[in-house]
Amino acid sequence: MTTITGPVPLCPASAQPCTCFRPFERSCHASAAEQARRSSGWLGDRIPRALTLFGHDFETIEVLRVVVVAVAAALVWFQAVRPVAGLDLVGVAALLFGAWPIFREAIANIKERRMTMELSMSIAIVAAAAISEFFTALVVTFFVLVAEELEHLTVDRGRAAIADLIDVMPHEATVRRDGVIATVPIDTIAVGEHVLVAPGENIPVDGMISSGLSYVDQAHITGESMPIKRSVGDTVFAGSINQSGALDIQVSRIGRDTSFGRIIDAIENAEQSRAPVQRLADQLAGYLVYFSFAAAVVTYLLTGDIRDTISVIIVAGACGVAAGTPLAVLGGIGRAARNGAIIKGGMHLETLGRIDTIVLDKTGTLTFGEPRVLAIHPASGRSEADLLGLAATAELRSEHPLAKAIVAEARARGIAVAEPDSFVYTLGRGVAAQRGDDRILIGSVKLLEAEGIDIPAVHGGDAVSSEVCVAVNGHYAGSFAVADEVRPEAAAAIRELHRLKIRTILLTGDNATVAQSVGAGLGIDTVEAGMLPEQKLARVRALVASGAKVAMLGDGINDAPALTAASVGIAMGSGTDVAKESADIVLLANDLERLVATVRIARRTRGVIWQNFSGTITVDALGIALAAFGFLNPLLAAFIHVSSELIFISNSARLLPAADAMRLPRKAP
Ligand SMILES: Nc1ncnc2c1ncn2[C@@H]1O[C@H](COP(=O)(O)OP(=O)(O)OP(=O)(O)O)[C@@H](O)[C@H]1O
Ligand SMILES: [Zn+2]
User: According to its record, what are the GO cellular component terms (predicted)?
Assistant: First the structure.
């Protein structure tokens, strides 16, 4: 029962209808060789368009070019074919066929007024042929062709590592509709429907378990290596594996909207959006070509030696930065994704690698954000149940963690919670609600004070629990002590951030006593409490303006402006949608140590890119000098060019997540 809905999208790479049936068909991830294989071959399919050699796919025509060039080079070397009218026909023909892709690229680059390696290599090949050095021209061509194939292999491996991640999404799901069970394509499922997942199957949607109990492996989504127990009422994510029991899941998100869909979006964007460092890499590559041309002209004017001049042009390679940089960025983002952090573009990865300050929010970020009511302090003349009932009514429609705690406590005590007639939420302060004749205010001390309400000096509250105050019809009615649990890994994560020389600042809307006690317990450098959302924003802006590279980590609606203002905004996966939309990075794993790991990945990526930059400049400068003074011949120059580039590209490839690293090693206890 497979139906294709809508037009088949075109692959941006080939402009053909997309041939790879990814769960979210937007772009075709197939390599050029894979696409060639799928289209029909030559001579009525007797010769396939793609070949598999050493376990890798190559286009037949490209393999043919390499072979022809190599054979021609041997023929020329052994002078097996006599030149006709002084012209080495074998050499000319082999060059025209073999080096055609290089020439074609060079011509295109001239039209675009871009300086590239293909251009300089074309000039060198033509120059060598012009002085009848066909052997040199052919060997240089051979090197360039082989290097290009190897480069494609590496980049394809990068894509494959990422595609691997995408492939775990099922294309079909089993739904229960009006009591009938049917298997349907994923994109026909609607939010609110019930999906059945058997043990061992991948979960196809984000949703809430409505019946069943199982262990769920979420390694793809959050990087958590251990399966976790999930039962009725728990949330599960698309892309995770249902290990032990049958589950009935009520769908809350499908396709691109799922957490997993976001990961894929992020990775695809990463391939398209260019990090500033990538632009720098392209520029550097252009400058290196100019520089080698200038050096070649100087060499020719001083020495008059055409072979040395050709060597100077050939030796300078820049693909190590031009191709190595995007590969490193892709690798960094892929690795981070496997680690449970979605980075929405290369630029953010780069910024994260440079941060020196991290601003943290408290509730939901350093703590679980699932607070519980610890104590109820009604004002004299009120009962606990009375106070709780009024408070829960006011909070019923609020998404704030404190609100949920109060409503939950009321329900737990069997108190019927009435709907409010109306309510107004003031960000960072609290709620004002109307219920019958009662006007209920609930929130911070500031909220009540702003309405001119007298708050008794002693009204509960201690170092660990936040305080929520209530007033009814302009009179103080009591308060709740609500406490949240600090995430167990928080202290270690803060220590590691300090070890990475990153300053930590806690900005919270909560009161100073709680903020100080949490901050001191975790060893945070600076603690600022009682911050309204606009004050958090102003603080982050001031930090950025002072020249700091600031990461802001938050989860709430009240954090969203600050997330946008920071150099890089990071949202907790468990946070509100607003926060996740505003952020540049989403920490699906909700694990602060994963944040540290992501910072490390970002720094490593930057490190690799700069190694490639400095390595390329060094090798090129040395090579040009050696060639200019006659220490290299064109063949040696081509070898240096190609091998140094391949080294730098492999250096970038180290960042790619290993294909089998689907499961991360368990954390040491
Ligand atoms: N829905 C609400 N119910 C009760 N009190 C609220 C509510 N919203 C805000 N408040 C009060 O305003 C204060 C600040 O809220 P805000 O949401 O800005 O921060 P927070 O949740 O305390 O902590 P953080 O800023 O670390 O996330 C809270 O500590 C609480 O006293
Ligand atoms: Zn090159």
Answer: plasma membrane
Domain that holds residue 438: 372-483
Which one of the listed residues 88, 156, 361, 591 is annotated catalytic?
A: 361
Which residues have C-beta under 5 Å from ligand 2, the single-atom ion? 117, 317, 319, 645
Cβ of residue 536 lying under 6 Å from some atom of ligand 1: no
Provide, rounded to the nearest whole percent, the portion of the chain with pLDDT above 70: 83
What pLDDT score was predicted for residue 389?
A: 94
Q: Which of 443, 459, 483 is the last residue of a domain?
A: 483
367 lines ligand 1 (CB under 6 A): no
Q: What is the per-residue pLDDT for 667?
A: 32
Q: Answer whether residue 365 shows pLDDT above 80.
A: yes
pLDDT at 582: 85
75 lies in some domain: no
Report the distance separating Cα 271 and Cα 265, nearest Å: 10
Cα 313-318-321 angle, rounded to 5 deg? 170
Scanning 273-323, the segments in alpha helix (DSSP H) are 276-303, 306-315, 319-322
Q: Is 442 in the pocket of ligand 1 (CB under 6 A)?
A: yes
Residue of 361, 363, 505 to mutate, ligand 1, most atoms within 8 A of C-beta: 363
**Residues ≥6 apart with Cβ < 8 Å to 179:** none
Buried/exposed code over 200-212 (b: 16+ C-beta within 10 A; e: otherwise): ebbbbbbbebeeb
Q: Residue 386 is part of a domain; what is its CATH number?
A: 3.40.1110.10
pLDDT attached to residue 446:
87
Does residue 398's CB lie within 6 angstroms of at least one atom of ligand 1?
yes
Q: What is the pLDDT of residues 68-86, one digit of tens each?
A: 888 888 887 777 666 665 5
Is 226 inside any structural domain?
yes
Active site (annotated) includes residue 361? yes
Helix axes 324-338, 276-303, angle to 10 degrees: 160
Distance (Å) from CA 143 to ligand 2 centroid: 10
- CB contact at 8 A, 620 and 120: no
Domain count, the chain: 3
Contact of 508 with 519, CB cutoff 8 Å: no
Residue 643 CB burial class (10 angstroms; 0-12, 13-18, ≥19): middle
pLDDT at 21: 34
Question: What's the mean pLDDT when you consider all of the chain?
Answer: 82
Closest atom of ligand 1 to 398 CA is 1
Distance, in Å, from the CA atom of 301 to the CA atom of 565, rounded to the nearest integer, reads 55
Of ligand 1's listed atoms, the one at least distance from the Cα of 468 is: 31
pLDDT at residue 666 above 60?
Answer: no
Residue 136: inside a domain, yes or no? no
CATH number at residue 248: 2.70.150.10
Please tell me if the CB atom of residue 612 comes closer than 6 angstroms to any atom of ligand 1: no
Q: Which of 433, 448, 483 is the last residue before a domain boundary?
A: 483
Is position 637 within any domain?
no
